Amino acid sequence: MAADPRTLIAERIKASKRIAITSHLRPDGDSLCTARALALMSGLLGQEAAIVNNDPTPLPFSGFPDLAGIRVGQIRAADFDTVVLLECADVSRSGQKGLDGAFKINIDHHHSNSPYADINWIDPEAPAVGEMVFELAGPLGVRPTPEIAENLYCAIASDTGSFQFTNTTSRALAAATELARLGASPNRVAEKLYYNSAPEKILLLGRVLTTLTTRAGGRIAVISMFKRDTEALALKEIDTEDMTTLARSIKGVEMVMFFKEMAPETFRVSLRSKGSTNAARVAEHFGGGGHIHASGFTVYGPYDRLIREVPATVEDLLNAAAGGPSGPAR
Ligand SMILES: [Mn+2]
User: Fold this and answer.
1) Is the same domain home to 17 and 138?
2) How many angstroms separate the alpha carbon of residue 259 from the centre of ligand 1?
3) Rounded to the nearest whole angstrom, what is the distance from the C-alpha of residue 324 to the centroid of ligand 1?
4) Domain boundary residue among 162, 194, 226?
C-alpha cells in the first residue's frame, strides 16, 4: 500500500527551506485563503513561504489585509525547494511556465486525471482544498493559530457558498466546527466575504437587475450589463457572481444567461445552471466551453438582435436535450 500522501507532503515540507505556493488562474477564495494558511503553517516550522499567483487577487479577497502579501507573476523555480500547486488539474492551470525541473506537490479536491506532480494528493470527496490543508496540521506537527484557522475556515465557507452548496458535507461542517474552536470567527469571515461591497457595486446590481427577463416558461433568466453602466459608476473591477446568484434564486430558473458588453457589438455570455441542465453543451454550440454548471461564450452583433436570437436558440437547445418542449428530465 502506498504511503499516505499527507505524510509524504509533511515530510517534504519539513525538509524544505523555501516553499512557493500557487493556485489556479483567476484564483478563488478557497485557493487564496488556503495558500495563506499553508504559508503561515510552514512559517511556524521556520520556513520561508511565498505565495505567487499568475493572476491578481480578485474582489473581495483583494481587500483582505491577510492576503496583501500575495505576489503576482511567475515563480522562479531555482529560488525554491518545493512548489505547492493548489487546485490545479495540471501545471498549465497555474499559468506558471518554468516549473518543469521543480519539485511539485499537487493538492486538489477536484477529479484530476493527470497526477503530474512528485507528490499528488487528490481527494474529490474533500469539500474544499482548505479542509485538506487543515488535515496537514497533524502530520506537520503544527497547531493552527487563530489566523491560520480563520483562513482555512474562510476557504471552506467560500467554497461551499457559506455552507449551502452540495459540498457542504458533514466533513465540511466538522472542519468548520474545529476551526471555530481554534479561533476562526464565522461572523468576521461573513462580514469580509459578503458585507464588503462598494456602494457603486450595489448601484450597478440595481441597473443589471432592471434588465431581467425570463423565458422558456420561467426556466431561463436573462440579465445584461453594458459598458455605459460600469463607466458611469467608474467601476474598474467588478464581481458579478452575486448578480448571477440573484437571478438564479428565482423559483423555477434552471439557467441564467448573463450578457456582458465587452466592446461595441461584442457580448460575453456567462451561463450558470443547476441540476441536470448542461451549461457546457449550450456554450459549445456557440463556440465556447466550460463545466456542466458554469460556462461561457462570446457573440457579436447589435444587442437588440442578440437578445432576441441567442436566448431563443438556448431555449431550443434545452428543449432538444430534454427530448421535447415539456421540460428536462429530473
Ligand atoms: Mn476549492
Assistant:
1) yes
2) 26
3) 36
4) 194
